[in-house]
Amino acid sequence: MAFQILLNFGVAFVWMFIVQNFSGQGFIVGYVLGLILLIGMRRFFRSRLYIHRVWAAIKLTWLFIGELIKANIAVLKVVLKPQLDMQPAFFAYPTDLKEDWEIVLLSSLITLTPGTVVIHVSDDAKTLYIHAIDCTDVEGEIDGIRTSFERAIKEVSRA
Amino acid sequence: MKTNDVILQFTAKIVFFIIFLFSIHIFMAGHYTPGGGFVGGLLTASAIVLLILAFDLKTVQTGFNINYRLLVATGLLLAVGTASFPMFVGEPFFTHFYDYFELPFFGNTSLHTAMLFDAGVYLVVVGVTLTIIQSIGEDE
């Protein structure tokens, strides 16, 4: 992935030197040309084209924005309810993400969606301890995180 | 029992770069917009302090193995040198010079000796802040 981006930059710089256009415009034209070449040469790379991962990252951003709006409305309902019948809960969320940045990203996404806060990452980094403001169905909550955020993060980090 | 600070450490590693770049920007912007040597130095020091908080003193010292007392001395020398240089060419103490230069790559740039004085202030602030924090932190 990093190698492909570096190659793309290299092609863009070569293009800038060929046409003697050292502006942002020349760079962008060269970059797009390099991207087309990379797509043509994709069977020579060991890993996926990096465009797939960029697209996955964009999809993850959209997913996060959607979840943020939904969770905010849910918390608003809890706050504005006349009866105080919410069920706060702590639960352990077993994660199978390996890399540091994946765990930090998942924790940040969980914390930034209102209603759930990551309290602690276990020492072997296999479990996240999460506090939920209104959680009657722990299994459903765990499943929801696994099928939304964790799957999207795995999609980004897949080689 | 070592707790797992993965979130704090990873975030500190990334945010360090952002704070450091911003501190350089603030230092450079001091002539026409708010900023300058003092604020820039404090921001640089705070970036390093963030690393010290997330990891520990020894880890950061292996990376930034700088003698901060020497940094203070260098900054003071730079400031005094910039201030006393005009006396050798028959101008009063602390006279600043500036001119416009055609630099390669940067184009027409105005260079001012106040920048050098500011760099001295910057080095002194970074050195003093980190000397204080290190001497308190190493106290057992």
From TrEMBL, chain A:
<comment type="similarity">
    <text>Belongs to the CPA3 antiporters (TC 2.A.63) subunit E family.</text>
</comment>
<dbReference type="InterPro" id="IPR002758">
    <property type="entry name" value="Cation_antiport_E"/>
</dbReference>
<dbReference type="GO" id="GO:0005886">
    <property type="term" value="C:plasma membrane"/>
</dbReference>
<dbReference type="GO" id="GO:0008324">
    <property type="term" value="F:monoatomic cation transmembrane transporter activity"/>
</dbReference>
<feature type="transmembrane region" description="Helical">
    <location>
        <begin position="103"/>
        <end position="121"/>
    </location>
</feature>
<keyword id="KW-0050">Antiport</keyword>
<protein>
    <submittedName>
        <fullName>Cation:proton antiporter</fullName>
    </submittedName>
</protein>
<keyword id="KW-0812">Transmembrane</keyword>
<feature type="transmembrane region" description="Helical">
    <location>
        <begin position="60"/>
        <end position="80"/>
    </location>
</feature>
<keyword id="KW-0813">Transport</keyword>
<keyword id="KW-1133">Transmembrane helix</keyword>
<feature type="transmembrane region" description="Helical">
    <location>
        <begin position="12"/>
        <end position="39"/>
    </location>
</feature>
<keyword id="KW-0472">Membrane</keyword>
<dbReference type="Pfam" id="PF01899">
    <property type="entry name" value="MNHE"/>
</dbReference>
<dbReference type="GO" id="GO:0015297">
    <property type="term" value="F:antiporter activity"/>
</dbReference>
<keyword id="KW-1003">Cell membrane</keyword>
Automatic annotation (TrEMBL), chain B:
<keyword id="KW-1003">Cell membrane</keyword>
<feature type="transmembrane region" description="Helical">
    <location>
        <begin position="109"/>
        <end position="133"/>
    </location>
</feature>
<dbReference type="GO" id="GO:0005886">
    <property type="term" value="C:plasma membrane"/>
</dbReference>
<feature type="transmembrane region" description="Helical">
    <location>
        <begin position="69"/>
        <end position="89"/>
    </location>
</feature>
<feature type="transmembrane region" description="Helical">
    <location>
        <begin position="38"/>
        <end position="57"/>
    </location>
</feature>
<dbReference type="InterPro" id="IPR050622">
    <property type="entry name" value="CPA3_antiporter_subunitB"/>
</dbReference>
<dbReference type="Pfam" id="PF04039">
    <property type="entry name" value="MnhB"/>
</dbReference>
<protein>
    <submittedName>
        <fullName>Na(+)/H(+) antiporter subunit B</fullName>
    </submittedName>
</protein>
<dbReference type="InterPro" id="IPR007182">
    <property type="entry name" value="MnhB"/>
</dbReference>
<keyword id="KW-0472">Membrane</keyword>
<comment type="similarity">
    <text>Belongs to the CPA3 antiporters (TC 2.A.63) subunit B family.</text>
</comment>
<feature type="transmembrane region" description="Helical">
    <location>
        <begin position="12"/>
        <end position="32"/>
    </location>
</feature>
<keyword id="KW-0812">Transmembrane</keyword>
<keyword id="KW-1133">Transmembrane helix</keyword>
<feature type="domain" description="Na+/H+ antiporter MnhB subunit-related protein">
    <location>
        <begin position="7"/>
        <end position="131"/>
    </location>
</feature>
